[in-house]
Amino acid sequence: xGRLAEIQTRSDRVSSxxxxxxxQAVERQLPFRFDAAVADVFEDMIARSVPGYGxxxxxxxxxxxxxxxxxxxxxxxxxxxxxxxLAMRHHVPAGVRLVGIDNSEAMISRAxxxxxxxxxxxxxxxxxxxxQATALPVSSLVAMNFTLQFVPLAERAELLSxxxxxxxxxxxxxxxxxxAFEDPAEQELLGELHHAFKAQQGYxxxxxxxxxAAIENVLVPETLQTHRDRLRSCGFRRVLVWxxxxxxxxxxxxx
Length: 255
Known about the structure:
CATH topology: Rossmann fold
CATH superfamily: Vaccinia Virus protein VP39
Number of domains: 1
CATH architecture: 3-Layer(aba) Sandwich
Order of helices and strands: HHHEHEHEEHEHHHEE
Distance between the termini: 34 Å
Number of helices: 9
Structural class: alpha/beta
Strand content: 15-25%
Shape: globular
């Protein structure tokens, strides 16, 4: 069994529920929150909702081998159940520590259980805190997977500038996000394909529609060009697309 498969198996022991949060019709859909109900089914939810998510974790392990430097930290911002933290942990050299930060106590509680069961030796610190108000340690690799899209638009540049400032020269940020598209036809087609993907994963039309209503104005995607331009303006000298599946992208930004 590979390392990432082991991580998934351990996750299932802690959070093995199938996502059915939006399976029952309601009159008024409340805004999406990362509460205990979501934490209970999060592994299933993200795997069935984000095409390419598993490969994103595999590529993060590759990034850890390439960029992690002894004497520095690797940070997971918006760590949820620590899947990215653990993907990096198994591929960093000695002398690297992992720091995972998330503002959901339910997520951090479950993440701590996963880390306790993990067999890698690199030290891990998990913090229940606001990533926008937490001091970031000197780092060689930062992962922010599907997190920036929940930060208010006007506050995203400041957060990215703080990330760039904490990175060592040659360090990297892996930024994964849902995309918006300037071309309405492209936006519509990729949106339809994403919904078709979710249907193939077993979500009903009702679940897809209610989740879309819950997440509207909570998750605010941006165009690829907006991400590129902002990252460069915040101190990253190179910005590469290294993974994209439908309307989900993972960028590698080099300090």
